[in-house]
Amino acid sequence: MEDRAFDVCVVGAGVIGSAAAHDLAGRGARVLLLEQFGFGHDHGSSHGESRIIRRTYIEPWLAELMPEAYAGWSALQRACEADGGVLAPGEQLMRNTGGVDFGVAGSAEIESVISASRVCGVPLQQMSHAEVAAQHAPLLPPSHGMQDDRDRRLCGPYTCLFSPESGVLRASLCTRALQAVAARRGATLLDHAKVTGYEPLLPSGGGAAGYTVHTRERGSFRCRQLVLALGGWATGALLPRPLPLVPIEVTVAHWRMRPGLDVSRCPIFIHYGEPYSVYGLPSTRFPGTVKVCWHGGRRTEATRRGTTTTTTGVPAAVAAGDDGGGAAVPSELVGVVAPFLSRFVQSPRPGGGGQRVSAAEWLQQLDHVERCVYTMTPDEGFIIDRVPATSSGGDDDVIVAAGFSGHGFKLAPVIGRLLADMALAAIGGHGVDSAVLDKTLEPFRLSRPALATFLDGSSEANSFSGQWEERGNKAKL
């Protein structure tokens, strides 16, 4: 007979929910993981070939968590190899590439990266512009090829920081591995199980005794603790109060590099500051390409399905911005990413290393375009907290993990452990140090100052919601 009662039910099998189920199962909890689509779907934020992993953060409280994240991914690799059948022989979840963080010298972002790295003991090497070009193709020195006042204003003086520990995670493979190991440790995983609602079970003595969770396809289940890791769907009907979250659609673009360049040796790179809030990493899926994307997008609804298209040989008219009304090239690629490539990445022409080409020519190198969803908070920080399960409040709160704002994937092993700690502490301790847990969770609480004005019914909530449409329009530049 199918088990209908669990210690913890986790709703949402993206990387965060899967990491929570993995940690809970490893600690002996009876855990149920529910996913509304099929496992490995491409409608949210956890699919695709790759994500960046790095210790270089502006916020020291995130940099402090990264050693545990690295250790967690390494432990998952070992568990997969020990169990067999999850990874192909020699297949790796994580690959080291090194990373270059760069931005205008003295800017708040760059100075914060340096400060947080120093406090947290992150190895960091400041590089000259020439060293960047010589050692980390296909990047160019930020001061290279400055031709006018705008170039000089945007490109120099620059600070370039090299971190040897940065690298790439194989996103879909990592999520699948978390699920596989969780199942082998006793977790129950059910896909095509859309949760339609839940209600607390309240005994006569008061306080929540657990929850009944209802699904459209799989019936109902009972659990003692409920974790909602809903991604973009955290803006929907499963929460009784709105949270300061905006799903945005992000364009993921792969660009062909010059023939003969070993892109597998390309470091990950992150540029800080407008208008080029851009990041890049070597592609493992499309040979000879580098994934370069703008850290931004337009507001969307999580219910929209992602699409994948292949684009080659973009017409020069489109590159110039005159698409005749029918071009499929997203405006942020024309207005932000292609100009970034023109200033900071070596020419894709054969033998063109060390040179730059126009944004229009870079658009001819657009190889593949995909869509992804970020779920943004006003400060781009995470939400990991308890929220009342009913509008009346009380002791019937559920655990919510949301708003990972395009940079939470790398921290999934840590976030999964924190969610497991929160659930297990409520049902019997399980050795969880509540004081340490509360301190770790402090930057992620809904009560933090950056979110307070968005929860009090003020007009700022609407301004936050609208800013992504405005920012998306600015991408046309």
How is this structure best described in words?
- There is one protein chain.
- Helices cover 30% and strands 24% of the residues.
- It has 477 residues and is of the alpha+beta class.
- The chain has two domains: 187 residues, FAD/NAD(P)-binding domain, CATH 3.50.50.60; 203 residues, D-Amino Acid Oxidase, Chain A, domain 2.
- The strands form three sheets. Strands 5, 6, 7, 13, 14, 15, 16, 17, 18 and 19 form a ten-stranded mixed beta sheet that branches. Strands 1, 2, 9, 10, 11, 12, 20 and 21 form an eight-stranded mixed beta sheet that branches. It has a three-stranded antiparallel beta sheet with strand order 3-8-4, covered by helices on one side.
- Helix 1 runs parallel beside helix 7 and helix 3 packs across helix 7.
- The C terminus is likely disordered.
When the domains are counted, the total is 2
Strand content: 15-25%
Sum up the overall morphology in one term: globular
How many helical stretches? 14
Helix content: 25-40%
Poorly predicted runs of 5 or more residues = 144-155, 305-326, 473-477
* Mean pLDDT, all residues: 85
Number of DSSP-assigned strands: 21
Distance between the termini: 60 Å
Question: In this structure, how is the largest beta sheet organized?
Answer: 10 strands, mixed
For the record, the CATH class of the largest domain is: Alpha Beta
Rg over CA atoms: 23 Å
Query: What would CATH call the architecture of the largest domain?
Result: 2-Layer Sandwich
Oligomer: single chain
Kindly report the CATH topology of the largest domain: D-Amino Acid Oxidase, Chain A, domain 2
